[in-house]
Amino acid sequence: GAGVSQTPSNKVTEKGKYVELRCDPISGHTALYWYRQSLGQGPEFLIYFQGTGAADDSGLPNDRFFAVRPEGSVSTLKIQRTERGDSAVYLCASSLNSGTTGYTFGSGTRLTVV
Amino acid sequence: GENVEQHPSTLSVQEGDSAVIKCTYSDSASNYFPWYKQELGKRPQLIIDIRSNVGEKKDQRIAVTLNKTAKHFSLHITETQPEDSAVYFCAVTSGTYKYIFGTGTRLKVLA
After folding, report:
1. How many CB contacts within 8 angstroms connect chain A with chain B?
2. Separation of first and last alpha carbons in chain B
3. What distances in angstroms separate CA A104 from CA A93, A100, B46, one per listed residue?
4. Alpha-carbon distance B103 to B9, whole Å?
5. Exposure of A20 by Cβ count < 10 A (0-12 exposed, 13-18 middle, 19+ buried)?
6. Chain B residues whose C-beta sits inside 8 Å of any chain A C-beta
7. I need a surface site. Which of A1, A9, A46, A112 has the fewest CB within 10 A?
8. CB–CB of A102 and B49 under 8 A?
9. pLDDT digit string (tens) for B25-80?
10. Strand B32-38 to A75-79 pairing
């Protein structure tokens, strides 16, 4: 596609529920990244994919968070047993490969846990 | 790990004046320094970047300067316009993918 697409744009869920956030990167981009942005803060790294594999998941806060990219294109960030502290904007970005810099962000999913 | 500090947190300037935002970093191996602009409710957008082998880069009204010795880099916006109002984030990377972002500067350009 022309840009990085994220769905849904907004998600409200109850504490304890499971959510999935989807990212569709720019066509042909092999590198994909997930960041989390809390109110008034800069984005914080969560996970990086090169192709289908998670090359670095060191930013995932705990084992309730998991992400997949089974075919090397679309990625899904999964959060189990959501907590109010998970509320944030989840940003996805992609780049042609990990050797290129200045990647392109999607518009994000605003997750609110009530 | 890398630590990035960004100042000021808020900045108000009169239209037509210049704005300067500064970031300092801790890892001397850092080699790429992008700046992102984020308007309210929108995605961060890359506006300019600089690599460690360059001291200055300019793109129309926007410039970035890098001082590797002192480990700081700055964003300069000249002839500011109301549409420059946004939150600006600096970022640093020493690898090729993982960015460490600053905490942001809210720039308000007063008409």
Report:
1. 54
2. 41
3. 5, 11, 8
4. 8
5. middle
6. 6, 32, 34, 36, 42-46, 49, 89, 91, 93, 96-104
7. A1
8. yes
9. 999 999 999 999 999 989 999 999 999 888 999 999 999 999 999 999 999 999 99
10. unpaired
- What is the per-residue burial (b if ≥16 Cβ within 10 Å, else e) of B9-47? eebebeeeeebbbbbbbeeeebbbbbbbbbeeeebbebb
Residue A85's φ and ψ, nearest 5 degrees, are -70, -10
Q: Which tokens belong to B6? A: 């960004």
Residue whose token pair is 């964003």? B75
Q: Which stretches within chain A are classed as H helix?
A: none
Q: How many residues are recorded in chain A?
A: 114
Measured in angstroms, the CA of A80 and the nearest CA of chain B are apart by 25
Going by C-alpha positions, the residue among A83, A64, A62, A66 that lies closest to residue A75 is A66
Q: pLDDT for B8-39, tens place per residue?
A: 999 999 999 999 999 999 999 999 999 999 99
Q: CA B111, CA B98: separation in Å to the nearest integer?
A: 37
For residues B34 and B100, the answer to whether their CB atoms sit within 8 Å is no
Residue among A45, A101, A104 whose CB faces B96 most closely: A101
Identify the residue whose tokens are 């801790």. Answer: B26
